[in-house]
Amino acid sequence: MAAIRVMLIGAGFMGSLHARVITQSPLTELAIVVEANEETGRAVADRYGAAWQAELDGLDSVDAVVVAASTEAHFELAMRVVEAGRPVLVEKPLADSLERTTAILDAAARRSVPVMCGLLERFNPAVLTAQALIEDPKFVTATRHSPYVPRIRTGVGWDLLVHDVDLASRLLGGEPTSITGALGHFHPLSAPGAEDVAEAVLTFDGGRVAHVSASRVGQRKIRSLSVHDLDKLIEIDLLRRDVTLYRHISDQPADAEGRGYRQQTVIEIPELVTAQEPLAAQLEHFVGLIEGRVDAEAERRSLLPAHRIVESITGVGTV
């Protein structure tokens, strides 16, 4: 079977990563790099043996498109690709508002075009491993904190929080029944209205609860997810890609006079179910959508909860 010819739109940090993964896969071929900045675009295109062009054109010469441009450009680019009938993978978020996200998905449904969003943590080996261990999750906590990055103009809702509300909604039952949140605006370099901290509490059917925290004013990078069943705790380090499972046995005072605390806990370190790079696994999933091995309608439906939650918390699309 011939490799799928892919057009990549955007040759910045994420675009260059996509270019590498597309080139390394035996399933795909990087055909065209679209990048307005000629020096940047040609550098990526030449490195991976692709053609460079400054503007989106020539969709009829490729089989699929990956959009890694700035968030504010996602809507127009994705709509042009969908209207041309080409499958598209868009870096998160799919668009800078729920209204625009829904418009893309509706257009894709009308034309039966596969659409995927780069919610990369779905393909994290630690997440995939934990999913096999989780039985009846009741409570999820997630922390995604980072030092400040001036190049990212989007607030943390669309940039960071979207990943973890996506994981929480998939683990706890889809659409939450209630959403509460709080935003913090602190950094002098942030664009007006772009939040630097976002906290969310999500309630799902059956009283299941998720607490999700995102910040870009941290002093170290943290990517952690904890899932509580009634009889075990599963801790996931998304950055190190490891999983630890805890089962409580007993607790008692540390000494006869009741000073201190002693606990007995069984700790399990499961072997990861895969070591595949998440970006490569995401590309394989995209190829599955293109080839019809993955349900395109189910994929489109799966993208809405995270986008609804972020817009509910932030109140608006991105700035």
The average pLDDT score comes to 95
CATH level-3 fold name of the domain at 4-121 and 278-294: Rossmann fold
Q: Helicity level, as a percent range?
A: 25-40%
- CATH homologous superfamily heading of the domain at 4-121 and 278-294: NAD(P)-binding Rossmann-like Domain
Shape: globular
Q: Work out the radius of gyration.
A: 21 Å
Q: How large is the share of residues in beta strands?
A: 25-35%
Largest sheet data: 8 strands, mixed
**Number of helix segments?**
9
Query: Looking across the biggest beta sheet, what order are the strands in?
Result: 8-9-10-7-11-12-13-14
Ends: how far apart? 43 Å
CATH class of the domain at 4-121 and 278-294: Alpha Beta
Task: Quickly describe the structure.
By secondary structure, the chain is an alpha/beta fold. 32% of the residues lie in helices and 28% in strands.
Descriptive notes:
The chain has 319 residues and is α/β, with parallel strands linked by helices. It is built from 9 helices and 14 strands. Helix 6 packs across helix 9. The longest helix is centred in the middle third of the chain and has 17 residues, at 156-172. 40% of the residues are buried. The mean pLDDT is 95.
